[in-house]
Amino acid sequence: DVHFDVVSGVTFDPGRARDERRQVRLFLLGAVLLVLVAACNVSMFFLAAAPSRRRELGVRLTVGAGVPRLARQLMTEATLFVVVGSAIGTVISVWLSGYLRDDVFVAGPLWSQVTLFDWRVLLMAAAVMAVLSVGVSLAPIIGLRRVSIAAPARPVAAHAHWTQQVLVTLQISLAGALGGPALAIGSYLWTLTSVDRGFESHDLYAVLVRPLPGAGGRQSDAALLAERERHREMLAALPGFEEVAFGTAVPGRPMSMRANARPFERSEDAIDIRIDSADPVYFRLLGVTVLHGRALTAADRDEVVVNATLARAFWGRTDVTGERLELGPGSVWTIVGVTKDVVYEHPKETVLPRVFRLIPVASDTEQILIRSRLSLPVIQQTLESGVSTGQFDFSVGAVNQVERLYDAQLTSDRARTLIAITSSTLAL
Length: 428
Fold this sequence. Notes:
The protein is about 50% helix and about 15% strand. The chain is α+β, with helices and mostly antiparallel strands and about 425 residues long.
């Protein structure tokens, strides 16, 4: 069966664009509910102040001012209140938009540059202010028919008016409407952060390297392994560098090779797998648990280690040491170990089947893992100094803490949770 995903417009990633539109709609709905709560608050403020103004409004009615004229006065007061509040909110929103535009949460989408003075923005703002003005002044206007000069002299029952009761009920309902999604999003974030990641990242850094101009070209397996060991010795000799490992898969930044494989002969369903390189120190440095068998050694050539997901997908069990894995002509490997699943990508994503080989595809496809108690700037400076002095025959790219690389995937989830909780708290 062929599956077609029909989307409106042109986008690089339809799934991501759909998720972003859903998130924007959620935040817009939260903003509308929060504005309605604010309108209820202001309307109740005017209702609370109404008894002290009954004599004033009664005198105006007595001297000939009609109800429509008093209604216009209350409408004008409400409009002035809404306009001042909207102006203050606009100033704050302009500052926030400039701040959030550079944040990781909204750094991915290609935003259209819309000025505040665009006629569409102004028209929408004017429409919102008009609706709010009517809503804020509606309750006081309804009570104009009961206004008279003698009203203040009559005893007043010490209970809320039905209008106030309706507004309070509406406000609590809107606060609950925001609080429900906030609790759900918070629970979702808690689930993501409490998942078993399968790795340790204490004092662990990941380094991207690039070959110097003129270097490169296809090398033999023996040459690649010799080059890796030479780089390990140079890096391990640096002060403060405790352990060094090489591999393509780093939590938060996997750079794996993608392949398709069938779990058994004559199977029509191909499984999407990832092929990674890993040296003998890789699993120990990341703290990855080996469930069955052993990790890779320097003598392995046609031996591989697989994760538990691949073992279950191909054989229906995790202890598959000794089995042979065939991914194509000339790619027949013997499994010597099975590791616990590691969450390399976003925690909500399904863990992919992975194969780990000792042989790297090329020297510039691997990342370097360094365990050190030095700070990130010191490590960056030490590596760049080695490049500038000619000690290394590669250039240093990004240097990141592994924990921060992994946490960066949850930035948008934390931002959504913060926005939802803040909105519901303000409404309540």
